[in-house]
Every structure is written in structure tokens, then in C-alpha cells.
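Appendix B. Worked example

We walk through a single record from start to finish. Start with the input: the chain for Acetoacetyl-CoA synthetase, Pseudonocardia cypriaca, length 637.
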Amino acid sequence: MTVVTPPPGTEIARFLDWLRTVRGLGFTSYADLHAWSTTDLDGFWSAVAEFFAVRFHTPPAAVLARREMPGAEWFPGATLNYGEHALRTTGDAPAVIAYSQTRDRVELSWDELRDQVARAREGLRRLGVERGDRVVAYAPNIPETLVAFLATASLGAVWASCAPEFGARSVIDRFAQVEPSVLLVVPGYVYGDKPIDRTAEVAALRAGLPTVRHVVAIPYGAGDVPDALPWDALLGEPGELAFDPVPFAHPLCVLFSSGTTGRPKAIVHGHGGILLEHLKNHALSWDLQSGDRILWFSTTAWMMWNALVSGLLVGAGAVLIDGNPVHPDPGWQWRLAEETGATLMGASPGWLMACRAAGVEPTRDHDLSQIRQIGAAGSPLPAEGYRWVADRFPGALLNVGSGGTDVCSGIVQGGPWQPVVEGEISGSALGVAAAAFDADGKPVVGELGELVITEPMPSMPVGFWGDPDGSRYRATYFDLYPGVWRHGDWVRFSETGSVVVAGRSDATLNRGGVRLGTAEFYRVVEELPEVADSLVVHLEDPAGGNGELLLFVVPAPGVELDDALRARIARELRSALSPRHVPDRVVAVPAVPRNRTGKKLELPAKRILLGAAPEEVASRDVLADPTSLDAFVELAR
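Next comes the structure step. The output line below is what the pipeline stores for this chain.
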């Protein structure tokens, strides 16, 4: 038998050596390792904890006391603290490098970060924050936000954050659910070259969150927050860098769903689950090592912010970016990658395709030889994007993944021991028993089905805040297949394990009894030079007919959607996909509605076309372009 090993020097290679030496386990392929990780859950997750030297203040009585979902009980009896592991590294090397269009570059060494967290912890204690209290932040991706998060975690208090581009109503819809006692805010920020004043929104938050006892104002942007404790005063006294041991499932943070299909879900993640999942993911998939740097543009409202700052867990420094990600031009982030020596460069597929369209040549114009991985998540990356990255970064691994806020990590993605498959995702992540199910709950390969997870993961939510009997939690993930997690994506697994995500399952198109994935349309239509963006929805026929398939396109600059272009779009869809994919109508719109992480919002557009009021389907604050649903409102009329 030929033994295939991962590249030497990678973290997964080091993990395999450790498994062989310490556990007596040998694996000859990623598929073998993955199979073990999803069948011997006790063995795999205990190995993760031991390999990464997780510090249990009280050792666990078991690894997995109850395997059924929902309700799997991980590491019962154990106590630990996420913050302690994030701040294990010491010294004067940079832990945080922050760039902003609001102020100059900020850098904190590991020792400076540890000192600021100790001071913030002491400041929160003076404000009366105790274990279980909620601390929330209306703040951007800046060092102060990270410091406050780690200080909150150190106390066993619970963290939640929203980006300041959100309007007050959207933030109150989220924060009011957790009844916070402390609110951190910024008075404003600069986006590109445009100053944004948020003092009115801050005042509305204070009025709309009656449980808040203290407001802390971070000096950022123009404006003042009256009667607030200044950030410098919160950090005014030295403190002990201590970490309160909490149970494995004790709430670490609350992440909120997008709110595009109803009230945002308040998803509770625990200290132990996020710690183990991010140690596993960041080292074994992203290959982050001590001394590395991770640069991944994110706002504090996206789970990628939590993943970004978790680079600290493995001793990697975090590059924080706030502002317009393409200002003054699409190449700005590549310049930051060169300047910071980023080894993992995170990118949204939309930004990569924008760089391609703009003729950006990152490796010609910058020394990016230190980049070992380029991560892409948030939406599907077309095959042309794979080729663009491969041509420019032949020595780096393109790691395309898909996961979600619900598990705060990737479900399917790549890694150093997996092949890159053009236009597809390499496979399931370690420890994730992912599959596609048909309507009868049977696994399918080679055809589209519901993305499911058949075995528990430590980072599955502790629950939803304000859902004491767990009914909303069960209805969200376990309504269709009892005992099996249904994630809400429509996917196809190949015989070799690679994956295509065809869109959200609630947005798939049921035409003549055949379900069509939305992402398949976009891969074809958006490669046409005449089309800048697109959105497809299917309006079902209540009488049981085929309904109407509508394709909305944003024409490229200088292009008019005429009958010739409509005919070309139809021909391309017919030849590349099938006659079922040919739309009944092709309509021009000025913008495609997307949320702030770049995901297209097919379902809100569809609901508006079926007669729903726009304020019922999506708050404008969750839209990347607040006007992007207006055209659909007009069409509905």
C-alpha cells in the first residue's frame, strides 16, 4: 500500500506524527483520517484537546457523555476558559496589527495585548460585571473590541457584538434579546473617505436597551458620547490577568443570524466548543502556526470575526481591518498582506472576482511569497476564480469552504492534505460527519440534497438565548430529520468526497418537481461579460403548474439588457445546464440584494414578489445596499 502523507512542516503532518507516536494510530489518506474523526468521536476530540494542550482546570469525566442530537453533552465536569488559551503566547512580537480608514495603524505586542486585557477585565469588574452577565459592543473590527471580548471571556461573562453600520433598530432587535448590562460604543467611523456619524444611533441604543447599566465609549471617529465612561478610564488601573474557570458549555458569545427571514436568532456558543473547534480548524485545515499572521476582512457582525481573532489560540497574530475593503482600490488588501507578512489571506469570493475583473495583479505588484493559504468563504467561488488564484499563487493552497454562524466554523472545506477541485470544495472538515440527504432522509451521492450533519460536533450551539425549552432550536435544525442536523444548504457530494454548494435549500427552485440550485445559474450567467450580477427566484404555481422562473440581472456598465442578450443568456443556460434552467423572464435591476457578508438574498426578493411588505422580509440594515430591494417592490406593484 502506498502511504500518502501531507506536506512536511504542516500542522496536520505534525498531528499525524503525534497520533502515530502517542496513540498508535496510522492513517494513509485524508479520507481515512476523516472517517476516524467522525466515528471515534471520543478518540478524535480527546486527541485534539491533548495535542493542543487544552488546559482543563477541572478534568472532564468523559469526552462525550451523550451522543444523541440535540443535547449531546461534551466533556462533562470539565472547566476551562477560552480567553486563557487565546493569551498563552507572550513576548514583544505583534499579536494585533490594525488598519483603518478612521485612524492610523495600531499595533499591539502579545505582552501589550495581555496587559490591556488585564486592565479591561479589572475595569469590567469595577462596573460590576460578573459571570453570566452580558457585555455587548456596537463597535468595528479594532483592537479595543478584541480586548473587550477577551476581558469579557476571562470573567465568564457573555459577549455579543454588532458592526456600527447597522441601524439602531437592527441592533436593538439583537441586543435586547440578551439583556446586556454593559454597552461599548463608538461615536462614528470613516468608510473610505466618508465620515459616518453614529451618535444618534448610540442614543437610540441607550434608550432601547433598558438593562444597560454602563456605557463605555471608545474614541473612534468624530463625535462624543455624553455621560459615558471613556475607554481609557475603563483601562485606567492595572489588573491581574486571570481567567475564571467555567464549565465546558458555559456561554462564551452570542452570534446572531442575518435576520433576513425573521427575527435574528440569538445563537449561543460555549467556551469549550469554540475552543476545540477553532484549534482543530485553524491548525489542521488553515495550517496556522505560531508566529503566522491571519488577514481576513470581516466586521464584528460576522462569525468570521470570531474565527479571525481565534488565530490567537494557535499563536498566530491577527490583522484587523476596518473600513471600505476596496478603498482606495481593490488592491488595498493585497498591499496590507505584503506589509504585515500575512501567511493566511482570507477573501470573499466576490472580492476575488472583483480583483480579477479589475485586472489586479497581486503577485506582480507585491511580494506575497509568504502566503501559504488563500481562504475563501461567504458565497460560492466560480471556477474562473479558482483559475485566477492558481495562476497568480502557484505555491499557495486555495482553501474554499462553507460553514456558518450556527457552528461558527467550516463544515466543508479544504486543507493541506486534500486536493483542490476546480469549482468545488475539497470535502468535509475533520470531525464533521457531513452528507447530503434526500427527502426520505437517505444519503445521496452525485445528486443534490439537503446538507446534514449526522454526528454531534462540540461547536454546535449550546442553544438559543431566550429559548428555555429548546423548541426553537429543535425546530431550526432538527425538524426535517429527527436526530440529524439539517444545515439549510443544498449540496452535492461527489464519489471522491468533493462538494458543490448549490445555494440555500429554502431558495432552491422547484420546477416541474425537479429542484435546481441557485448557484448553478450564477456560475453560468455571471461569467458572461455583459452581466455584472444576477439573482434567480422561482414563483410557484398554487395550482401545481411549473410556475414562473425569473432571472434578474445587473447589466455590466454600458450594457443594455435587450432581446439579443436575453437570448444569449437562455442559450448559455440551456447548453451548460439544462432546458429546465432557462428562465421564463429575464429582468434588469440596478442591484442584487445581498446581506453584509455577501450572500444573495433570494428568499426576501421572492417573498416581496409574492406580496409581502419589504419591512416584513428584511431590515434595510442587514442589506449591503439598503436600496437593493426597491426594484423588487416596484415589480411587485
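Two observations about the output. The longest strand covers residues 485-493. The longest helix spans residues 110-126.
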